[in-house]
Amino acid sequence: MQVILYNTLTRKKEEFQPIEDKKVRIYTCGPTVYSYAHIGNFRSYIFMDNLRRVLEYNGYTLKHVMNITDVGHLESDADEGEDKMEKAARKENKDPYEIAKFYADIFFKDMGRLHIERPEIIAKATEHIPEMIAFVEQLIQNGYAYETSKAIYFDISKLDKYPVLSNRKLDDQIAGARVEVDPEKRSPYDFAVWIKAPINHIMKWESPWGLSYPGWHLECSAMSRKYLGDVFDIHTGGVDHVPTHHENEIAQSKGCTGKIPAKIWMHVEFLQVDGGKMSKSLGNTYTLDQLQEKGIEPLAYKLFCYTAHYRTKLNFTFDSAISSQKALNRLRRAYQEHEEALVIGIPTNEIQDYKKRFLEAVNDDLNMPLAMGIIWEIARKDIKAREWADLLLDFDKVLALDLENSKSYLEEEKKIELPEEIQKWVEERKIARQNKDWEKSDELRDKIIEAGYIVKDTKEGMTVEKG
Ligand code: AMP
Ligand code: ZN
Hints:
The chain is α/β, with parallel strands linked by helices. The protein contains 16 helices and 16 strands. Helix 10 crosses helix 13.
């Protein structure tokens, strides 16, 4: 079955046809590691994971690059403001590399908690300076870039068309009214590919243009080219990347290689709070830890993301995230009940029909809400059957909700509800059983039962529930 993806470049859904037969080359704009990633950021990486898994489910193998921006992302997406990394370093009185490592480590830990697959290649901007310098040299040689006393700028007047990705209007009047950071710029829309470092700038490198550092857009162009070639299959990012970052990546690649670097450009819409954007600069963000403190697991947040298609805005409220946590628990119980049931010979055509519907949903531009509707139909079956559990597990290759481990999550959930004293006895009894101290184990079991709980010893271990 054909995978269909929406392409921002052509503004329509297209049948996906990889450049190489079964291998898909993807580039994702990764995090700027100057602070904790928030759940809005993670909406975009959950989308990235859905894309990966849908392609894998369809039998493709992936070469996927995600960058880590650890230099060059200024406070605005264009050429204004301080470098976000430097600003954080000054604020926390630390070295920018230390800041980058600290937040990148937490970012990957959080990706793990969300069961997001790690792209095959993780590329840090600071480790690709020579490739970026070569890119700038090529741009200058091709006549697409020029030097001023502040930076090397991309000359958009040399392009046949700009912008190509967004509907952004280049309004000279508005642009003219803006206070320009560099009066030597030929056009207000020219953007910096390489920036000469002011004297107090911490992150800077020797280059043909003196001590300087890369522009954010250049990083992605140089790194995607290095690992994926001049033209690859899919480029992903958030909608905020459309008008500036990705537009400028395309401009640079056209200037360097003459080609638009990716065939399909995919963008995830924003997670909002109270109807507005969730962003670090507005100070209205939440982290996975903050959700967890309110009893919302990372995977419940992922399930919450599946309530909307990636191309629509999604409004975050704690109430709806708590509902997703309850839904996740219900899904786990439903899976477990099917899993513990017998194989009862569900007709294969019924199973095949579900498989077809699921594949149609996820292959239709990753329609996760539709896919979840199918999951709930199966979960809610009155007649419990092992085959349904197997089917849910198969679909979980795409959803990545870790249904396979439902039982242990449910046990954890019950444990959380147990009073501290009972929990202590349960733990002591586990140790007693490990030590084959049956007398102590029985004594503790009696105590737990006396307190009003039901103790069951099964092959997999002990379960304790309120009686
Ligand atoms: P940053 O670390 O700021 O470069 O952002 C990392 C990714 O998160 C980018 O792909 C952004 O487009 C995306 N992003 C930022 N804020 C949100 C949001 N509120 N909802 C969805 N994605 C977002
Ligand atoms: Zn990028």
